[in-house]
Design a protein that fits this description.
The chain has one domain. Strand 2 and strand 3 (about 35) form a beta hairpin. It contains no helices and seven strands. Strands 1, 2, 3, 4, 5, 6 and 7 form a seven-stranded mixed β-sheet that branches. The protein has about 100 residues and is mostly beta strands. The protein is elongated and about 50 Å long. Bound molecules: zinc ion. The site of zinc ion (ZN) has 8 residues, from strand 2 and strand 4. Zinc ion binds near residues 55, 74 and 76.
Length: about 100
């Protein structure tokens, strides 16, 4: 089922690298074979071991906290994600790169 109700969905950035923005999708789950589902439950209602799918987008703009707006790649959501890069985000800053957090 595709979620067309929400045009914008706020998510928290879980990890930021020099080139990528990662976040856990609130709309899809993946099994250990990499298959995507619109629920973390089986059809019989039992909870599966599926984990929230982690989507990624390009990071053009370094390591500062900010909001990034991206069109969804998600199979189950066609709106836009507002990705919150904040103090909880794991920032994989390469050795030797100077980052100004002011
Ligand atoms: Zn998704």
């Amino acid at each position: 089922m595709i979620n067309n109700e929400e045009k914008f969905k706020a998510v928290e950035c879980s990890k930021l690298t020099k080139t990528k923005i990662y976040f856990k999708c609130p709309f899809c789950w993946s099994n250990d074979k990499g298959k995507h589902f619109s629920s973390n439950k089986f059809k019989n209602g039992k909870i599966s071991t599926r984990k929230p799918t982690i989507h990624n987008h390009g990071n053009p703009d370094g390591f500062l906290n900010r909001l990034e707006r991206r069109s969804s790649h998600c199979a189950f959501y066609k709106g836009e994600f507002i990705i919150d890069i904040n103090d909880n985000t794991i920032k994989e800053i390469p050795n030797g790169l100077v980052v100004n957090f002011d």
